[in-house]
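Narrative of accomplishments. A recurring question from our advisory board has been how the design workflow behaves on a single, concrete structure rather than in aggregate. To address it, we present the structure tokens for one chain from the evaluation set, followed by the sequence designed for it. No filtering or post-editing was applied between the two.
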């Protein structure tokens, strides 16, 4: 069993090997299902010139947003900017390169990258700035644009449970981008709430098989709520 055990006990070990200029694919949607501790470790390491692929960039003081303060991110591929004022300001000031990508296209870029598919055609974005410079092809009389898939040196993932072999279970909406992102990293590191022994997870409940996972760490999560709305 020891040879298949993917559990590490420190964040330094979890993110060992990350270097300046790497592409990091991050799971999460807003602040839901984000790998909080792994992001904090990238902050601590002060790794620079990163390309980050994620639905969005957290908020100013939490999630991926904390990497903007010391300008650790060179480029971000995302579908949404709105909740992070610093991200928005750096975009407008030309400090950070941003590739805005339709949300479904971004998910498929990750999934295709993990499946070894270099590109795919989609109608989404045709006739908009998203399509500029991209190949267009017609299928059944409808135009589609060619989108390239995405892979990265690291994928950082949040899951609910994992066994020591790296098999993953996600919980409710925290699944979001995590399963696709997990397949697209050369080194996939997963932060989880609970680690169980092999055999405790039923095959039917596993969302991402351990073949995609390199390292697992048990995290401590703040699980901050991005925006609280209550009725009067």
């Amino acid at each position: 069993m020891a040879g298949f055990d993917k559990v590490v006990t420190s964040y330094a070990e979890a993110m060992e090997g990350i270097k300046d200029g790497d592409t990091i694919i991050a799971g999460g949607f807003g602040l839901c299902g984000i790998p909080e501790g792994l992001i904090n470790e990238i902050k601590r390491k002060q790794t620079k010139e990163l390309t980050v692929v994620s639905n969005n960039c957290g908020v100013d003081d939490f999630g991926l947003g904390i990497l903007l303060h010391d300008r650790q991110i060179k480029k971000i591929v995302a579908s949404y900017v709105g909740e992070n004022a610093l991200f928005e300001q750096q975009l407008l000031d030309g400090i950070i390169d941003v590739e805005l990508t339709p949300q479904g296209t971004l998910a498929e870029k990750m999934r295709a990258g993990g499946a070894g598919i270099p590109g795919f055609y989609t109608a989404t974005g045709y006739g908009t700035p998203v399509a500029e410079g991209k190949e267009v092809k017609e299928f059944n009389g409808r135009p589609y644009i060619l989108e390239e898939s995405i892979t990265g040196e690291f994928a950082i993932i949040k899951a609910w449970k994992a066994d020591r072999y790296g098999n993953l279970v996600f919980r409710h909406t925290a699944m979001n981008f995590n399963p696709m992102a997990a397949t697209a990293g050369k080194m996939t590191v997963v932060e989880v709430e609970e680690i169980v022994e092999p055999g405790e997870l039923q095959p039917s409940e596993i969302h991402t098989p351990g073949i995609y996972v390199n390292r697992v760490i048990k995290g401590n999560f703040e699980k901050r709520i991005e925006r609280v709305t209550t009725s009067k």
